[in-house]
Amino acid sequence: MLFNSSLFIFVFLPITVAVYFALNHKQKRSAAKFWLVLASLFFYGYWNPLYLPLISASILINYGLGLRLRAHSKKAELIFGITLNVALLAYFKYTDFFLENLNHAFNTDIPLPEIILPLAISFFTFQQIAYLVDCYRAKTDEHNFLNYSLFVSFFPQLIAGPIVHHKQMMPQFAQLGQSNAHWDNIAKGLLIFSIGLFKKVFIADHFALWADSGYAQVDQLSSAEAWITSLCYTFQLYFDFSGYSDMAIGAALLFNIKLPMNFNSPYKAVSIQDFWRRWHITLSHFLRDYIYIPLGGNRKREIQTCNNILITFLIGGLWHGAGWTFVIWGALHGLALVIHRTWQGTGVKIPRLAAWALTFLFVNFAWIFFRADSPAQAINLIEKMLIPDIAHPSPSFSVLTNATDLGLYGLAMHLAFFAILAFRGRNSMQILSTQRHFHLGHSVFILVTLLYTYISGLNSHAAPFLYFNF
């Protein structure tokens, strides 16, 4: 079930909210939390009910391991728990990738099982690994199974994050049964949900048409079309993930739950370090706290610190997907952070505008590997971008404009306008923090966005979010 589908917006979400508050109104607080768990598992199982036992078993086993770690704090049990979670993730996500490379390296013909990746396994695996580590470190004091189940399965953040931390969420769930409808939260939740929906259906999905068309025909692109293709994906991903993050925060706020900020205008970043403080913030925190620091962080020699950065981002790249393109993408960001760290040591400062341009250009080129079907396709597109196209001095842009009825002028205006919005506009959290009162303009915006989504959904299927693939 997609956040941008009519089924979710007009059926699942209002029914879930209504039943939850009805149960609370009758003082059935545990039943209200249990209802949210059931609704969240239904939301998860709507894609493929066969994987419901997987997430249910994962919740049960990790909760039991957490109890043991709090009671005994044995390192062997922590290693077992982490290994179990990583092995589960590795089996579903990396088996085909491993066998494919094994066949290629040794000229074997081992059949690929073609395992279907369970939704959200990357997210709830990292989430529960963090929980086990903190149980071992005696940083948790939550013993309620219902609260833990809701912490893992809560549907606004289940499929594509944010990767919530137990200390951020479980105290809220412990008080969840005492909450009643808070109309200010409902109004703010609807507003931010609608902002995210607007980003997805009005902006990201249009960029997707051009990006998909360009990547499907890389060999036919001119140099100018190659640049537009790369930029369209760069902004598709920006507004797609930003839109999802807003919708997750907005949906949670309907239940008086505040999810952590996961997206803070990353294309305004003036360094690669600044970028990772703004992009997928909760993933950055996980990589820092549970991989980089345990490896030694920056407490050892400089060469070891640089190695720790590279290892952390190689893992971050693989977390996103089982493919060499993701490994290369992670390696590029790791190298960029090492270079940034080395440059900082010189004490030489780059002018702010130049630093921003350099950061954005690097991120744009790195996204090419993130999106491409293979390293060869990525390199092909980059070559077209960097080598002047003598064969097409006056490109027709037909490869891209045939993908939509907006035409070349519409494409250019769409790209320019929303690029400026990403570079200079206020993000959703900034807008929400300045809106003290809900007014008529907000209501009109919400209604128009929901109406457009409903009408467009009658003519086509809702497009999935990009991070649903990870």
Task: Considering the chains and any ligands shown, give keywords for the structure.
470 residues, mainly alpha, globular
General description of the model:
With 470 residues, this protein is mainly alpha-helical. The chain is built from 20 helices and no strands. It folds into two domains: 6-179, no CATH class; 185-461, no CATH class. It has helices at 6-25, 29-45, 52-72, 75-106, 121-136, 145-153, 155-158, 166-174, 183-216, 223-253, 272-276, 281-295, 302-320, 324-346, 352-371, 375-386, 398-401, 407-424, 428-434, 440-459. The protein starts with 5 loop residues before the first helix and ends in an 11-residue tail after the last helix.
Write the layout of secondary structure elements.
Blueprint: H1 6-25, H2 29-45, H3 52-72, H4 75-106, H5 121-136, H6 145-153, H7 155-158, H8 166-174, H9 183-216, H10 223-253, H11 272-276, H12 281-295, H13 302-320, H14 324-346, H15 352-371, H16 375-386, H17 398-401, H18 407-424, H19 428-434, H20 440-459
Helix pairs in contact: 1-2, 2-6, 3-4, 3-5, 3-6, 4-5, 6-8, 9-10, 9-20, 10-15, 10-16, 10-18, 12-13, 13-14, 14-15, 15-16
Could you write a compact summary of the structure shown?
This protein is mostly helical and 470 residues long. It contains 20 helices and no strands. It has 2 domains: 6-179, no CATH class; 185-461, no CATH class.
The figure for the number of domains is 2
Instruction: Report on the biggest sheet.
Output: none
Distance, first to last CA: 16 Å
Residue stretches low in confidence (pLDDT < 50, at least 5 long) are none
Output the radius of gyration: 23 Å
Q: How many strand segments?
A: 0
Residue share in helices?
over 70%
Instruction: Provide the β-strand percentage band.
Output: under 5%
**Rounded mean pLDDT score:** 88
Helix and strand run: HHHHHHHHHHHHHHHHHHHH
User: What's the tally of helices?
Assistant: 20
Which class do the helix and strand fractions yield?
A: mainly alpha
Which shape, going by the Cα principal axes? Answer: globular
